[in-house]
Amino acid sequence: MMKPRTTFTFLLAGLSALLGASPALAADTSMTVKLADHAVPDIEQLPPGHYKDLVQYGHALTTRTFAHIGPEVLNVGKRYAGNNLACASCHQQAATKPFAMPWTGVSATFPQYRGREDDISTVEERVNGCMERSMSGQPLPLDSREMKAFVTYISFLSRGIPVGATVEGAGMVQSKMPNRRADLEAGAKVYEAKCSVCHGPDGQGVRAGQPGDAQGYIFPPLWGNDTFNNGAGMNRLAMATRFVKHNMPQGTSFDAPQLTDDEAYDVSAYMLSKPRPVKANLEVDFPARWNKPVDSAFPPYLLGAPADQHRFGPFPPLVEKQRQMAEQLKAQGVAERAKAAEADRK
Ligand code: HEC
Ligand code: HEC
């Protein structure tokens, strides 16, 4: 599905190079893929065989994680995930929905620098990042069939998208946070009006079957024991606000949000103010402290602000402090690292 467009772009680039236009045009970086117009590759079109089997398993692991590697599966050795969510509880539509952290095109972006480890990370390590945090569980062994299936499924979704291409719809919609502390009471009201019908008044969601049957949820829990832990990306208020604003209530798409910025911010803060599983050893995250996002709400803190501000804002003053720190690093010649810090702060 991407092939004709890729070829066309390269033809154009080749033509302009012939005509003496900037050779920079010939680079893959000139290519933009708009996920909203990009056909989701169809697994059924694959010829039968090992590859199709693995892509299918990757798809199943993504949409029904709880049934294959969840904490209630019969095979105790496969209980890698610590909760009964699915990857697709957040990476919606089997990880193809624009601006719900889709995996389409992600293969071409790895290996990549990650501030959390201050190192270059592979896609396998990224999968395990979500296994240990979003899924509150254990890392998958690198040589397991499950890890191979995730990587193969991600690669299948990424077919035809070259290294360096811009993917419109990757990650989440970036937006500025309101410059104030989140209002938990206002958030509770938004929750009651717009979330509790599905996620329940107590945030525990609605099970598909009975506890213990590994059938997961119709509506996943937002807090309590069976959800993402405090080290997860979703536990960052800015991250949760962006996700909620452009994806919730269920059915919302990025181009027609149903919540205002203030509502998304307050309701996300309300959700994150509730108890959830605690990840051990979070203090070793972000070994290069200047890379630590200002809304990572666990110690140690670098900017001299109270812990509450990292949890509930206001964030713009913290972002400004961190920007100044990055400037100082640049002045000291640590420009590359400062650049990484800037990218991570967005
Ligand atoms: C509770 C929500 C949640 C769940 C469940 C979840 N993730 Fe994620 N995932 C995120 C968030 C948020 C990000 C991006 C933010 C970040 O960088 O921390 C992310 C990022 C990723 C990325 C990188 C995407 C990119 O654009 O570079 C991969 C790959 C990934 N997750 C894989 C998985 C897999 C595999 C599972 C299931 C085993 C999973 N995730 C479950 C929230 C979740
Ligand atoms: C109509 C039902 C519905 C409503 C209303 C709704 N959600 Fe969801 N929500 C879902 C479903 C279903 C999922 C799982 C995603 C999927 O399967 O596509 C989900 C997933 C989530 C997730 C990520 C998974 C997790 O368990 O953490 C968050 C966070 C979330 N919703 C927050 C909210 C907030 C906040 C509101 C209110 C503004 C809201 N939702 C309203 C149905 C709903």
From TrEMBL:
Domain Cytochrome c: 182-275
Signal peptide interval: 1-26
Metal-binding keyword on record: yes
Chain residue ranges for the region called Disordered: 323-346
Matching Pfam families: Cytochrom_C, SoxA-TsdA_cyt-c
Superkingdom of source: Bacteria
Extent of Basic and acidic residues compositional bias: 336-346
Keywords carried by this UniProt record: Heme, Iron, Metal-binding, Signal
This protein's name: C-type cytochrome
